[in-house]
Design brief:
With about 260 residues, the chain is an alpha+beta fold. The chain folds into two domains: about 120 residues, no CATH class; about 120 residues, no CATH class. It has two helices and 19 strands. Strands 6-5-14-17 form a four-stranded antiparallel beta sheet, with no helix packed on it. The radius of gyration is 26 Å and the shape is elongated. It starts with 5 loop residues before the first helix and ends in a 6-residue tail after the last helix.
Amino acid sequence: MQKSIYTPLSGALAQERVMEIISNNLANVNTTGFKGDRVTFKLLESEPERNYQNPLPPANFKMDFEELQNLRGNSIGYVGIAQVARDTSQGSSIKTGNKTDVMIEGKGMLKVMTPDGERYTRDGSLMINREGILVTKQGHPVIGEKGDIAIHGTSFDINDLGEVYQGGELVDRIQLFDFKDTTQLERVGGNYYFFGGPQESVTEVDLPQIRQGFIEGSNVNAIRNITDMILSHRSFEAYNKAIKNYDSMMEKSSNRIGVVGA
């Protein structure tokens, strides 16, 4: 009986993680260039040769269920999070008419220099600061072939290859970068990503596709995510009800042990 409570507990913890992911997706449904996340599950099976510890209730219900070694033997069969995968599909095209706005079509990310080092983003809502440097909304310079992209004045054009022209002369070219292992890209806030993999796996996009005067909208499907959240919440409630039922049965069993009828 005691070990049975962990089966719905594993499901509840998994659904809790799903709701966190969906909530973050919905919070960024209007964020420029945002890419939503999707959760996949896996069955946590036992290892017959492993000596599991005796069942103990977890001290922190926010921890990963895979860290709980709660059974002895090979009867474990729980659900866990296999992966939180990023949806890299193209977001909607939004026309702004602003010369500093650029939309990336297909692969690639802008490289940005921040006080914490290099970061990457799909957010093409750019501007020109007081020094005439092309920067993000956070004020961080966008990296070009020559470094910071200096634009003097408001008359300039950016072609499909990211080349910046002013007065008919080439000023610089916006670089786009791609990654062999996108799972190494970590969200760090400000619509930025940090790449934690080896630098040799970062490659420049050979034929970038950039549209001036447009921005890429979020690729989050609000209706689908709301539907998924409803299903996840109902599943969480069902698992929670099962946990309470198991707890109630164990309480009754414990109270009746040793009771001798008159």
